[in-house]
# Entry
Amino acid sequence: MANLTRVERRGHLRRAAAAGPIREFLTFTLSVDLYAVELTTIREIVSPPPVTHVPRAPHDVLGVCSVRGVLVTVVDLRKRLRAPAPPSSSRTRILLSETRSGEVVGLLVDEVRQVIRLGAGEIEPVAAVLGGDISAHVLGIGRPDNDPIILLDLNSIIGV
Amino acid sequence: MVDSIDKAREEFFSEAQEIIETFSRNLLALDAAISEGVKDPTLVNEAFRAVHTLKGLAGLFGAVAMGTLSHHLEDLLDELRLGRAELTRTVLDLLFGAIDVFGKILAAERSGSEAMPPGLDELVGRLRELGGSVAPEAGMVTDYELDPGMLAVLTEYEEHRLRSNLEQGLRLYRLHVKFDLATLDKALEEIKDRAKRHGEIITYLPTGESSSIETIELDLLMASHDDLSILIGALASDRIIVEEIERKPLVPAAFSSRTHPPVVPESVLSVPSGHPRPGEEAADLALVSPDRSLRSLTQTVRVDIRKLDRLMNIVGELAIVRNVLSRIAERVRAEGQPQISSELLRVHRNFERRLTEMQDGILEVRMVPLGQVFERLSRVVRQISRELDKEIRFVITGSETEIDKLIVEELSDPLMHMIRNSIDHGIEDTAERARVGKPAAGTIALNAFQKGNHVVIEIEDDGRGIDENALMQKALRLGKIDLTDREQLSREEVLSLIFLPGVSTRERADDVSGRGVGMDVVKTNIGHLGGVIDVQSEPGIGTKMTITLPITLAIVSALLVRVGEQVFAIPLNSVSEALAFDGRGVRVVDGRELMGLRGQSLPLCRLARVLGLPDDSTSGRKFVVVATVGTRRLGILVDYLIGQQDIVIKPLGKTLAEVRGFSGATELGDQNVGLVLDPGALIEEVLLSGESVREKGLRAHG
Amino acid sequence: MLRILLVEDSQSMRAFVSASVEQGAAELGEVELIQAASGFDALRLLPRGRYDLVISDINMPDINGLELLNFIRANEKYRALPVLLISTQSSEKDRQRGLALGATAFLAKPFSSEQLVAAVRAALDGAS
# Structure
């Protein structure tokens, strides 16, 4: 086992040398598109507990829920990014992240996939690839297996 | 009588603790400095000073062990700051070790033990090795053109600092400054900050030449590596003159520091000597009567409020566990095991009792007396009264009234603003007061007391009161009310205009108090604490503001209600009663629904409608929860009363900051979350939406 | 009623002096003790009242007791004010300087309540 790990790491290092510092991203789906956020910004992934609707809240806030005693504001990421809404599945998850002011925000996503690693050189800048107003939240596009993954800036999305 | 000495001893323990902590922080900074290879003489000086002060106090209060340890540390630190010993890692470790021993000493004195703590002797031994007697220094000080008057007022300690600076080759400067007594603190802080970047201010000498009673002139003695030109650039101003103190030509001159002042005849020293000669240990117990032990002790512990919050969270979760336990008991009984069920119920009851005790205990810990804030305010009052040149008598009552620490922290600003407004706008100047026959000094009375689950704070002044006409004019001008309102507003409503944004600030900023802080900000801040504010005023007599606050934000009793599918919690301290509602006796007046309750009209609010939830108006029986906040009441119409429950209110995050009407959310069990209503906000929303006072900010937003 | 201005930066020391003065009511009569936590506070309080005695610690940060004494003696208004200085026991130089500047009396740390009361008494007597 130890040998395998060593080989893997060396391989990584070679890639890293070529592509700049490696960052890890968590990929997930929202309707038909693949998105990802930087792994370090996520503190936990949970199955959605009962979410209480908050009257008069902004339209993309689903409500609040409790995760082990901590109050979480749940944001419907689809609505915030204005992606089309498909039927929710049993695989929806909430990604928990903490804002600078200490608030825990949960992002509702359709399905969580895997963790990928990208070097700085493998992230394409956004430019004119995506239109509309979500480009403010986008770090870039990654293509580890040729399928484009939209890399999101989580701090920008939760907005504080 | 002995009590006040005991209290002084208690203060000693607190102060000793603080000094030791400062010393500790100091050592940590020194540690960091060493690792970075930076030499910071001020750090060593501060450490010396801390230990020196501790020694003095220890002697005064008869704390032998502490005095001994401080004495030896002082010697060592003296050597260090004079550059005669080197601050190596070993030495630093030794100093850190001293902190542990101090801790043990304090603990020992607290528990009344007379025994010397272990490790003290060893530590003292090692300190002695490194330390040693302080040899007299060379008189480098006399090589400078220092005003003999300035030298003559330096304490020995300051002279040491002066010498060590000179030994390191720094230059000497005199800063002549002229400041207003009133703003002295600020001006000094400022100059200290600026000067710190260039060197060290050794002493401040008031020159006694002040031209008026309000200004003071001082000479500051400063040591710096920098050139005169740099210092002038950094520090000089129209009130600050920077001059260099030159090195003298190499002709020795006679200075007063060289000449010895007349030998002191024993009789002038009006205290019989009884104190030990220098060199002896702090064996000062002879001065302290033997039966005075150090048994009376400080029992206080300083706690980070976040730790208390965490404890509160745990209590909340335990409450849920308790509920689950009771449900299991029910299920077990339903499944035909009555014996096990009653055992479970017994456990549940026991648990409940203990949990309540713990909850009460934690709540108690969070409570602090308002006196903390009031004391600070006294100082502010003195400052402001001088700034505004008005004589103020500040009377405080009820400072022992307790309230949640979190609330206290947030209270000082609003209170300060209100007092400032009072002194500024309310209290007349001396001439006017004389004219209307009032005593020269204006009175501001601050009173606090507990009323049920609330704490009431009153601020009253005997000034000119609020000019209602001027208030209305201003509100008119700002477009907050229109001409028809002018006729229709009741006195109470006129006075509450003061809480609208822009109304209570000055139009022109004057340079003393600026625009002033608006009462709308004060009101919002108080609102965030779950409180309300009311104002009463009588022209020519005075103004009184009343703040009503919940005693604690942490855990409250609440009434759980249901509207449609959703559960809401209403804090019980705002609920005066709840009754069944059958829809009869409801009138509509001015667009508002009212119902009769024991001869009085109660405004109604259909919660579903206000919150934009599906309104099931057809279903039969509903309930009205009568919410009372301050002097206002509102009947909240809900579908169902679930029951009473203790809840821990968790604040909603910033994302939901704009949503009005809720003071947070709480866990209801089974991971379900219920929103907690803010009756005060609801009352405002509902009562004002029907009124003709137009104010967008107060309306409900979608 | 004796009005004493106490200038001392240590809180527990202030409390101790206050308690001692209370205890010494038999000898001193009624005393109103006005407390200043720094030389600066003292400078602010001096013009605002009439005092019978100033008790000041010598070793205070920024404006020390000697400087305060100097200021008092240099000022027409307060020149005659009796001043009791509190010094650390090992500092002979501080005491000498204080005397040269015109201190009325000294009290060396550590001292007992009784010693404080006696010193206050002596300072008040010495002044007249």
Observations:
- The radius of gyration of chain A is 17 Å.
- Chain A touches chain B at residues 49-58, 61, 64-66, 69-71, 73, 75, 99, 101, 103-105, 158-160 (CB under 8 Å).
- The first strand of chain A starts at residue 22 and ends at 30.
- Confidence is low (pLDDT under 50) at residues 1-18 of chain A.
